[in-house]
Write a structure and sequence with these properties.
29% of the residues lie in helices and 26% in strands. With 516 residues, the protein is of the alpha+beta class. Strand 27 and strand 28 form a beta hairpin. It is globular, with a radius of gyration of 24 Å. It starts with a strand and ends in a 15-residue tail after the last helix.
Length: 516
């Protein structure tokens, strides 16, 4: 019996398999297609996602294939700037805030990583057509095989048309925002001046123009009806649409596809020993570039909790997955729909009113907007200030090595103490943290001794100064479990963690919800 079966081998399934495999668990991946999809779908990811890729050890391989984007424009049909989002070259997670990518390159890199893990087995051309509870886990029926695949837990990353979600009879909350688009991807063969990230809010023809990394580009056109796609997809018509930006001598047309932007959230993300992740759990319009990012967040959240459960923690810990992630996802969907309605307005009079309002707002403020996402919902966190929010990452130095915190000091559960005033933990607290697998680090001032962690970029010192906290405990997915204002409260913080992750006497039992 495997520890975990991952259904679906797109980026979310790959990341899930890699995280669990690197944690030492036996994983099997079941993918219905015989090969990798090898066509672009997602186009963008953020600094939080790059921090995950760095944790997996592939950031260096990815960087040459990516384009760092610093702004995101929304213009009307006349070319006037309506909205501008600004992205930092180095964001709060220590990486650029916005990367443009060609998904097949990402999948090739992730695939190479997963295939290098001896405890992960990949079965392509393995279409799942049934699941059944057993006393110790789940039996997964694969089409064409008489022998089921057995696993203690299942993570279904099988996309928007998820077989698993349907088998479990899980309904979806539909936000009602659904629009047909034609997506046209190009491989660049010569120099161009195509906008890298622009939404054209033209009521005559809404258009999205997005870079897919250094050598590829995407044009997306809103369709009046999905029925018009067979006519509009003709190559000559596609080239005519993009003629103002690129010609046949500058690019090759890779594919033309139709895609309906949807806004859906599954009602249940867990059914006993089966968890839904990525598009199987939620789908969102692409205007914020957060679809794949949200799925990678799912993978991170699931992986460290499953790791604890597989090592004996109460599997009630898995109930915190949806309670934490769903509010975050819903906030992104709501904002994406808000921007989508700006983009897809077809009434010329309403569009003119929109343009006047947005131009006035921009001129009054004069600064590009910053994208801000909420923290986690209730779950494996306490109620202290900053709990549930992402912990920033900065450059540090320790014992002669300088770099980003994750690279220098490692990952996992981390307790960082503000030791700039000389404060330090007592021996019993340090021992309890070590027993729980929490790495303890003490932030020091560069002017002080070589003991502890030197805050090279000032990120952590500023964080402590702005929050007024004395210590912070964050999780393997980089979200803050809790903070304390005085060091004497740290034992209570460790107790919160211990209650969730320490082994229990009784083994985890199979849950309800899988139909026979």
């Amino acid at each position: 019996m495997y520890d975990v079966a991952v259904i679906g081998y797109g980026p979310v399934g790959m990341a899930t398999a890699a995280l669990l495999g690197q944690a030492g668990h036996d994983v099997v991946v079941l993918e219905r297609y015989p090969t990798l999809y090898n066509l672009p779908r997602a186009a963008i990811f953020d600094d939080e996602t790059m921090r995950t890729f760095d944790r997996l050890g592939i950031s260096g391989d990815l960087l040459p294939t990516l384009h760092v984007q610093r702004n995101y424009e929304w213009r009307n049909g006349a070319g006037e700037l309506l909205i501008e989002h600004d992205f930092a070259a180095v964001g709060g997670q220590g990486w650029a805030e916005w990367y443009m990518m060609y998904q097949p390159y990402l999948e090739d890199t992730l695939d190479g990583l997963v295939r290098g893990l001896e405890n992960v087995e990949i079965r392509m051309d393995s279409r799942v057509n049934g699941l059944r509870n057993t006393p110790d886990g789940v039996d997964i029926q694969v089409e064409g095989s008489d022998t089921p695949v057995s696993a203690r837990y299942v993570v279904a990353c099988d996309g928007g048309n998820s077989f698993t979600r349907g088998w479990l009879d899980v309904g979806q909350d539909d936000y009602g925002f659904s629009e047909p688009w034609m997506v046209c991807d190009f491989r660049l063969t010569g120099p161009t001046d195509i906008p890298k990230a622009r939404q054209v809010c033209d009521p005559k023809q809404p258009v999205s123009i997005i870079s897919l990394g250094p050598r590829h580009h995407r044009f997306s056109f809103m369709l009046d009806s999905a029925d018009s796609f067979p006519f509009e997809r003709e190559p000559d018509r596609v080239w005519a649409r993009v003629a103002d930006h690129v010609g046949r001598s500058q690019a090759e047309l890779v594919r033309v596809a139709t895609y309906t932007f949807r806004s859906l959230v599954a009602e249940r993300w867990r059914s006993g020993r089966v968890l839904l992740a990525g598009d199987a759990a939620h789908q969102m319009p692409p205007f914020l570039g957060q679809g794949m990012c949200s799925g990678i967040r799912d993978a991170q959240n699931i992986a460290f909790k499953l790791d604890a459960v597989l090592r004996g923690a109460d599997d009630a810990l898995l109930d915190t997955y949806q309670s934490e992630r769903e509010p975050h996802v819903r906030a992104i969907i709501a904002k994406g729909i808000e921007l989508g309605r700006v983009q897809t307005m077809r009434d010329p009079v309403a569009a003119a009113e929109r343009d006047a309002r947005l131009i006035a707002l921009r001129e009054a403020d004069g600064r590009p907007e910053k994208m801000r996402f909420p923290g986690l919902g209730p779950g494996l966190r306490d109620e202290s200030p900053q709990a549930g929010h992402l912990m920033p990452q900065g450059r540090v130095e320790s014992h002669g090595t300088e770099g980003l915190f994750d690279e220098v000091l490692g990952r996992g559960f981390v307790l960082l103490v503000d030791g700039r005033t000389g404060a330090s933990l007592d021996a019993s607290t340090t021992e309890e943290a070590a027993r729980l697998g929490v790495a303890v680090h003490r932030l020091t001032d560069r002017r002080l001794s070589t003991e502890g962690v030197t805050d090279v970029g000032g990120v952590y010192g500023r964080w402590f100064d702005e929050t007024g906290r004395a210590a912070v405990l964050w999780r393997p997915d980089f979200y803050i479990l809790g903070t304390t204002g005085v060091l004497s409260d740290i034992p209570a913080l460790l107790t919160t963690l211990a209650t969730a992750v320490e082994p229990v006497q009784a083994p985890a039992t199979a849950g309800e919800g899988i139909r026979p």
